[in-house]
Amino acid sequence: MKIFGPLYDRAMRWANHERAPTYLTVLSFVEAIIFPVMPEVMLMPMCVAQPRKGWWFATLSLIGSMAGALVGYALGHYAFEVLKPVFEWMGMLPAIESGIATLQEKMIESPWAVFTFLVLGGFMPIPMKVFTWASGIVGVPLPQYVLSMLVGRGKRVYLLAAVIRFGGARAVEALRRWIEPLGWIATVLVVGLVGWLVWRAKFA
Q1: 21, 49, 89, 110: which could form a disulfide with 15 (CB 3.0–4.6 Å)?
Q2: Model confidence, pTM
Q3: What single DSSP character describes residue 141?
């Protein structure tokens, strides 16, 4: 059953919409707070459709993500207990609690250990909101937090734009050819990672 190929073709059509840059910025902002869909889902086809604008699209995504990261941090710091039932209902609570435990361990080491962890976390296929909320709850120092989010998210979006920009037509053709197996592999990895986080929160 083919799922990701047709989705890819549809995403390519959406990527050429005149308001696509605005939608990308808004998606990046909301994803850092609560929305489950990563902005790369929209950024990638936009870069493929208009590779010369890839750097600009990546910058818009980064701006939206950074604004959302600050809001997510503030909500985690000031409103987590109030919103805790919502996260439990959404099934996000185990992942956030696991992130809290890890950040607390890193805080004991040093603020820069937290920075390193968040930078590495920004490159993992883990929703950004897990890190933004957990950082606010733990109280990660704001300078390290902002810098780590900037580096972690920045390297993701700019690397994606660079691969498509310099890969050219061959990268686009290869992506279309392999989108189905890549989509299923990514799905399995994300499900496995979420399962591991849930297991760790319950039994570790």
Answers
A1: 49
A2: 0.74
A3: -
